[in-house]
Give the backbone structure.
Amino acid sequence: MRIFAFESSCDETAAAVVEYKDGRFSVLSDVVASQVAVHARFGGVVPEIASRAHCEAISGIAYETLKGCGLSVSELDAVAVTNRPGLIGALLVGVNFAKALAYAWGKPLISVNHIKGHIAANYLMNTGLEPPFLAFVASGGHTSIVRADGYREQTVIGGTRDDAMGECFDKVARVMGMPYPGGAALDKLAYEGKRPVAFPSAAIHDDSLDLSFSGLKTAVLNHINAQKQKEAPLACADIAAGFVQSAVSSVVRKLEMAFDRNPELHTLVLAGGVAANSHLRAALERFAAERGLSLFMPALRYCGDNAAMIGAAACLEYEAGIFSDEALNAYAFSM
């Protein structure tokens, strides 16, 4: 089967054609239009601007994607789109475009949960990943520990109670004077820290599998403000090293608890934009090796928002015969 997929949950307008044949995925075309330059001046994503940019870009992105694979819509089997969770205005652009396209060409319509899409990015690698497994999904808007008992049966068993992990990285980077998005620059700077500043853990000290990145972010901001008030030199590399160390170790702590409570599971999956963070990838490699777990991580190009991952998730929905109709709507939160 061949799926024409769209993703517009935040600040990337993306489209892709994904083929699923004999149990293997192939990305025939994959186009992403980033809005980073547009939002950089504001230090973060402005929802209304993001929605308008999606409106301007989505039609051209669709044509470019079809041109990239040399296929017409008539040669595709279904149209898929992210419909939750995300920025509601941004989601609506993708949902309405996909609905119109599916209706005009008489194609089945498939809705995809953005979180499931991130997890499905790992299937694109054709590495033999199969449920059941535990997944850690972290991005600018989401941070969740997910138990997957099947390709479609997924349950959130833990996550952040406030700020997302990626959002925390970007806000700390901004306060340290790094341009948006600052996560990648912060990741790199952390390697230069010789004396990491000690910051509190983001792992909530209870029996839950939850995290709180708001407290960690506040601790870093308070430290920076205190140094400025003392007119003391700001050791940015040491601050970055301490922050990254605390954030990553917090995740590992909660994953330890998750696997202790699910001893029958032996596979860990990493997904989401923060999956590109080298410190997190290295820490989970060590964690998986120590516990004898199989670890799956997406290629860097599929960590951020993209439509190929939505296409992969949609292929599994198509196989199960799960389709949407013209009443499909967008939702800001998972349901």
